[in-house]
Amino acid sequence: MWDQTLFTKWVKPLYMEILHANYTGTESTQQLVAFNQQVNTALASVDEYIITHLLKASWREKLTGSWLCGLKNWQQFVPLLGTLLVESKTMYAGQGYCFALARFATAESATYLAVYLDTYLRQPDLQYDQHWAMPALLWIDERRGTTWAQEFLVPGGLWEQYTANKLDHSIIWQLTECKRQFWAAMEYCRTNFDSGEQSYTKAQSHM
Question: How many contiguous H segments (helices) and E segments (strands) does the chain have?
């Protein structure tokens, strides 16, 4: 009953728009207004206890819980989210982990993203959330003035090797495209739900 209540209240109203950042491509103003209202309602009442339980459930709960966690800027969840990302035991949930870690934009969150990429870019047969993790790391680099992503993007490097046989099948593996999509998701949330987005000073950017 508890799990069903969690799903009904926190997950069902949100997860289809969160999945693949569908909210960035929704053309219905009415649908977006409803989504924004539901998100703001959730942000006003969600607590760490709820997030913890969502992150223990299935992929829909994990996706929604990690996304809300990113909006709330609850950086105490970085070790859990980072571990879940690297383990990659649940489909689609990794999108939420990457989103949240990028929102936090800390050295610790960047480290988890880098570990993930170093692990899964070496396995070209596994198409997980590499196209989310790479722009998430680039997002952190842009805000922090760091170069975490560069080791993967050198000519002939892991990103180029991993995407070599995928570019003809889907544009999501084009760096410019996955970065564009990720930026759109982040900017939408910063515009509409900016309570979790930090304003980094120049001094803070040097980790």
Answer: 12, 0
Note the pLDDT tens digit of each residue in 40-74. 999 999 999 999 999 999 999 999 999 999 999 99
- Give percent helix, percent strand, percent coil of the chain, each to the nearest 5: 70, 0, 30
pLDDT value of residue 201: 31
User: Alpha-carbon distance 207 to 203, whole Å?
Assistant: 9
> CA 103, CA 77: separation in Å to the nearest integer?
12
Q: Are 181 and 120 in contact (CB under 8 A)?
A: no
Q: Are 173 and 132 in contact (CB under 8 A)?
A: no
User: CB-based contacts of 180: which residues, under 8 Å, 6+ apart?
Assistant: none
Q: Which residue's structure tokens are 């992503």?
A: 149
- In whole angstroms, give the CA distance from residue 171 to residue 86: 24
Residues 6+ apart with CB under 8 A from 150: 141
Structure tokens at 200: 């980094």
